[in-house]
Amino acid sequence: MKKFLLASAALVAMTAGAKAADVVMTPPAEPYVAPQVIPQSFNWTGFYLGGTAGYDWASANVTYLGVPGSGDDFNGGKLGGFAGYNYQFTNNVVLGVEGELDYNWNEQSYDVGLPYNVKAGSDWEGSVRARLGYAFDNALIYATGGWAIANGYVEANGLSQDQTFNGWTVGAGIDYALSKNVFAGLEYRYTDFGKKDFDGALAGFSGKDYESNRVMARVGYKF
After folding, report:
1. Global pTM?
2. CA-to-CA distance for 41 and 109, rounded, in angstroms?
3. Would you say 74 and 49 are in contact if contact means Cβ atoms under 8 Å apart?
4. CATH hierarchy code of domain 46-222
5. What is the pLDDT of residues 28-55, one digit of tens each?
6. Do 2 and 9 form a contact (C-beta atoms < 8 A)?
């Protein structure tokens, strides 16, 4: 009888131990999944500067005492620099301001019926403009417009005089980020510089309807 009781007790103990082992067992761990890395979009906010080069199709009417000159094309190359600041909003809209200064190669000679030729042109020009664009990650498409200024000159019979032309400019372009800091772009602008009369020894000369269409490539660095 004692042997039977001992065997029963041992069986009960083994069954309880097995149930206890089942209770403390932990479920198998979930397989490890690495967190997904979402690439960050390029942000255009910040100061920047750069260089620009291109070509300008410009025209103006140069007259002397009401007599128009024989030509009015001032086409030529341009080389300059720019600096500005952009701020990108959370909805990818980019607002900025930019200033630019260029040197022109567009001198022309005129025959105005005098015993000497007249040379005229514009050696430098600049602008201060607002920019409004939309960013598609690394690409920024924008419109721009603002104030424009140019230095026009006339040379005749050893005399020379400069005049400052003030006007307005509008255009559009695209910038593309090549890296975290470097970007390149292309821009078109139309500019109307208005009219200016010359005085002093060159009184009677005037330059009017001075306007230009320009296409410029640009490379910049964003800080």
Report:
1. 0.76
2. 52
3. no
4. 2.40.160.20
5. 667 766 665 445 578 999 999 999 999 9
6. no
